[in-house]
Amino acid sequence: MKTICFYFQVHQPFRLKKYRFFDIGSDHYYYDDFANKSIMQKVAERCYIPANNLFLDLINKYGDKFKISYSISGSAIEQFEKYAPNVLASFQELAKTGNVEFLAETYSHSLAALKSETEFKKQVELHEEKIYQYFGQKPKVFRNTELVYSDAIGNMVAQMGYKSMLTEGAKHILGWKSPNLMYCNSINPELKILLKNYSLSDDIAFRFSNQDWAEWPLTTEKFAGWLKDLNDKEKLVNLFVDYETFGEHQWEETGIFEFLRKLPETIFNNTEFVFGTTSEATERYSPVSAVHIPHPISWADEERDLSAWLGNELQDEAFSKLYELEEKVAKSNDPAIQRDWQLLQTSDHFYYMCTKWFSDGDVHKYFNPYDSPYNAFINYMNVLSDFITRLEQ
Asked: Which residues span the domain enclosing 280?
């Protein structure tokens, strides 16, 4: 049997409002409720609801041959609660089918794994509780924010009891090796590693509507043909994409939903593949070898490294300043302090400070509330200054 793991990241940050220097000390509410509500409801209408309905139809049609996996950040779930309860209900309907798996991650979509094992574990536990609350599942597979992974992070995840973890099948890591096999952590071989097939994933996520692409238009027959042409030993293909790909990054008018609806049938008729969850793949396949990743990688941009979040002095200063506060925050019993601490760790805040404006520039502008990375930095540091003042008081 050959398996396709269709995995989707679902995340929306709590965006910060315009916070001036003169607000420090007088205004302790940091979030742009209007933007957060309007963006959530827009994406719900264009992506979450139609995509969820489509996948529910496919599950009802194909039964156990079609299964999918999601990771939904805690901040996204909170916004579903506040602004789009119909989205939350539709994910619960998917959960009831038994064909949908929910993965663990950091609650606030943070980069805590790079800085604090204590904070990292705390956020993962909070996220586990949220997933169980709404979907009745205890996650078995871990997916870190933006697929950030290293040998050390994987070892930490293994010690937390997870059986497998997702990350990017980065070319500079794999070299001649294929991402279409199961690997394991180089420190703790008990942790299996599922690698994203970035070429096939990005054909859907980024190139689908690009009319300058040599393979445009992408048809289900063409995609199934690429799967069929894989080496017979390559039995696991991991297609990992942002959920917002469907209807938001790739508009309905591009034919993306029609492509998705037709894809399973074409694959079943032309290949040996079925769709399985990441847990099923973990149980089904043995590692062929360890994958050695001493320095953190991610699935972002061409570099597949951390430079989208920690690639310049602005980002490094903001990130360091934030985590200098960890010990003081731990001593605080103020629920408002604890909540703001969580949400200020959301990786999007640092993503907005990115100064890479070359081939990946358009990606960094998506839903970016700031005119420039410098304004993003100033706004964040103003908020952080007020947070520090509250913490010291």
From this structure: 2-291
